[in-house]
Design brief:
Blueprint lengths: L4 E2 L29 H5 L2 H16 L1 H12 L6 H4 E4 L7 E4 L4 E5 L6 H20 L8 H14 L5 H6 L8 H17 L4 H16 L12 H19 L2
Parallel strand pairs: 1-3, 2-4
Antiparallel strand pairs: 3-4
Helix pairs in contact: 2-3, 2-5, 3-5, 3-10, 5-6, 6-8, 6-9, 8-9
Length: about 240
């Protein structure tokens, strides 16, 4: 969970138990959508839309994930699969598996670099949802695995981001960051004990940390992401010629 990304679950799980699944963090999920004219009057919404477009058009992390999802039969459409909304103060985004929609917290995302990380983080959840039978609600290990992958591959734990958080470390610091942020994400959207979250993360950590699809490597920088995107495109061209 970078800056508070979370993954709210399917709508059918809402109701009396909705707080258990994190929907309290995304209050606009329960409201009727506003008209385009009304939404266009809000600066937050306009800024969110502009930053989202910039991310989708220029960010190699997002571009790779979009291409990978398309190859997996889950084409992402801007107007359909992204929603800029107001959220609780502690979250920046979430993936709603009920609608296959990524929620972007327009009141909490103020910089392009932050938008890039949030979109990438949530696209990894969407990619996992596309390629695997993820039980987001009843199996905390499934949630833990996707959160580990999102923290590991989205740039959440790059050296510069960790320095900005005043967190420093040497050997194994990246793994520590991934583990801590995965636990934090689970606790944000599930009413489970810290011990339960830690156990789930620890039990799946090695397998999920080493699952680098679709990047093929841990992209520690935008340069790494560009190389991964190029490799992915070349892999697709190679497979097409088999």
């Amino acid at each position: 969970m970078e800056g508070g990304e979370a993954a709210p679950p399917a709508a059918e799980e809402k109701g009396e138990e909705e707080d258990d699944f994190g929907y309290r963090l995304f209050p606009d999920r329960n409201k009727k959508p506003q008209s385009f004219l009304v939404r266009s009057l809000f600066t937050f919404h306009n800024r969110c839309q502009l930053m989202l477009r910039m991310t989708l058009d220029t960010n190699p992390y997002a571009q790779l994930l979009l291409e990978a999802m398309k190859q997996s039969g889950c084409t992402v459409f801007n107007d359909r699969h992204f929603s800029c909304e107001n959220c609780d103060g502690c979250v920046s985004g979430g993936f709603d598996s009920a609608t296959s929609q990524i929620v972007l917290c327009q009141n909490n995302i103020r910089q392009q670099s932050h938008m890039n990380r949030v979109v990438t983080h949530e696209l990894i959840h969407a990619f996992d949802h596309c390629r695997a039978h993820v039980d987001w609600f009843k199996n905390v290990k499934h949630l833990a695995c996707s959160e580990i992958r999102a923290a590991n591959l989205s740039g959440d734990c790059t050296l510069m981001n960790e320095i900005a958080r005043f967190k420093f470390g040497l050997k194994g610091h990246h793994q520590t960051c991934v583990r801590d942020r995965a636990i934090r994400s689970i606790l944000a959207v599930r009413k489970v004990s810290k011990e339960t979250a830690e156990k789930a993360v620890d039990e799946v950590f090695d397998a999920c940390f080493n699952d680098l699809e679709p990047f093929g490597r841990i992209p520690h920088s935008k340069t790494d992401a560009k190389r991964a995107y190029k490799d992915f495109q070349n892999r697709d061209r190679y497979n097409a010629n088999l």
